[in-house]
Amino acid sequence: MDTLKIIKGDSKGYALSLDLLLALIPITLMLGLVTANMGNIMYETQDTLYRSSNERVAADTANTLLKTSGDPYDWETNPSSLKVVGLAKYDYNNHLTSEYVLTPQKVGALNSLAIHNILGSQYGFLLTITGVPNGNTIVNMTNSGSTNANFNNASDVVKVERLVLVSAFDIVAEFKKVRLTRQPPTLTKYFPTNRAYLDIYDYYVYVDNSNLVSTGWVEVNDVSGVNRVVPTSDFPSDPPLVRYIDPVTQNLKNGTDLQSNKVSTRLPGSPGDTADVYVLQVPKGTPIGLINPYGPQRIRAMFNLYVWTK
Predict the structure, then answer these.
(1) Does Transmembrane helix show up as a keyword for this record (predicted)?
(2) How far apart are CA 98 and CA 132, in angstroms?
(3) Residue 233 φ then ψ, to 5°
């Protein structure tokens, strides 16, 4: 009986060892599979983290460009003062930024170095802004400053896409409610242009209440006489009086950086009457019949930012 008890007890030990062995088989197989695929797992983990980092950098850059006016908020008037670039329109009346509403002057003054200062030099980028639905190109810029994308050899490219508004018509200089007198002073203001602006925009002078002006004039960059943009002989006239500013005749600035153009006006008339003079920036090719400073139009555009690690 004692011998049988020993054998019986010993057989329990063998059963326990067999169960343990059977349980270890799938664990061993799983460990083997994990070990065999560890390289792929690590690669996928690193790839996820890498892409997540690129996506965050691209999103932060897009938000800075589209949701802020930059630092300072009026940097387009003096590009050398730029600290952080932003394209959103600044509401001078309410002292607020109009998110996703882009200022044409800021867009025209944008350069690849300003974007690199946000992204970091280790990243490459392609930025395009195109009109919707016509597809007209407003901006096409890469990290090298050229218009050709160079991310074909990049291991990963992330894209940020946003729908934005761009002011189609913009008042770049204005003389509001000018009181007419028989001997009025000459009034002067300034508006900026550069080569990029002149490639995509036309400029017009718009005079409201021009029938009340007796012998006035409007000139740009001190171009006087018969070449004045609005000569004395044009007054009085049926309002509104609209005249195209020829960039060659009026010597509009066409350098790389934005430079100021001088606009002056003198408006004689009966005391008590008033007139308004505007300088309007409009998309190139806009029919003269559509020129109107009251409620400048805004067009929809698609903002696409591609970012990759160099």
Answers:
(1) yes
(2) 20
(3) -65, -15
- Residues 135, 197: one domain? no
Q: Which residue has the tokens 């020829």?
A: 246
User: Do 204 and 249 belong to one domain?
Assistant: yes
Nearest-CA neighbor of 299 among 161, 102, 110, 128? 102
- Tell me, yes or no, whether 14 and 72 share the same domain: no
In total, the chain counts a number of residues equal to 310
Contacts of 71 (CB under 8 A, 6+ apart): 82, 83, 84, 86
Phi, psi of 41 (to 5 degrees): -65, -45
Domain count, the chain: 3
Residues 189 and 149 in one domain: no
Kind plus residue range of the DSSP H or E element containing 51: helix 38-67
For residues 210 and 224, membership in a common domain is answered with yes
Same domain, 47 and 152: yes
**Spatial CA neighbour of 142 closest among 124, 165, 130, 118:** 124
Tell me the CA distances in angstroms from 259 to 86, 113, 166, 282, one per residue in order. 19, 19, 22, 18
Query: Is residue 149 classed exposed, middle or buried when 0-12, 13-18 and 19+ CB atoms within 10 A define those classes?
Result: middle
Picking from 151, 171, 273, 263, the residue whose alpha carbon sits closest to that of residue 212 is 273
